[in-house]
């Protein structure tokens, strides 16, 4: 798989575990003995709104799925801005200048 993944994530705390970045691509099938090759990037951007349950484990631990052997790499093409995927968020430098508080319902 060659992809860039932007996703929500469940926050890991001292009393609960989100499962980490390795669970951003959620595989639900039995991958026992299989390898998932991934070349791209993964970013947990915000607190997940839909997948909000805590990570409970895998395989025989809870009987949901068995994860693949993960063969993952960061795609070095993402270092080149001309090769970024359409819609990739970009960060710019903000230099604080003069700030003015506007009166309600005005533009100056």
Describe the structure.
The chain is mainly beta and 108 residues long. The chain has one domain (2-83). Helix content is 0%, strand content 25%. The protein starts with a strand and ends in a 34-residue tail after the last strand. The model has no long low-confidence stretch (mean pLDDT 81).
* N-to-C series of helices and strands: EEE
Q: What value does the Rg take, in angstroms?
A: 20 Å
The structure class reads mainly beta
Count of runs of 4 or more consecutive helical residues: 0
Reconstruct the topology from this structure.
Elements: E1 2-9, E2 35-47, E3 69-74
Parallel strand pairs: 1-2, 2-3
Describe, in short, the structure shown.
By secondary structure, the protein is mostly beta strands. The chain has strands at about 1-10, 35-45, 70-75.
Give the tags.
three-stranded parallel sheet, mainly beta, 108 residues
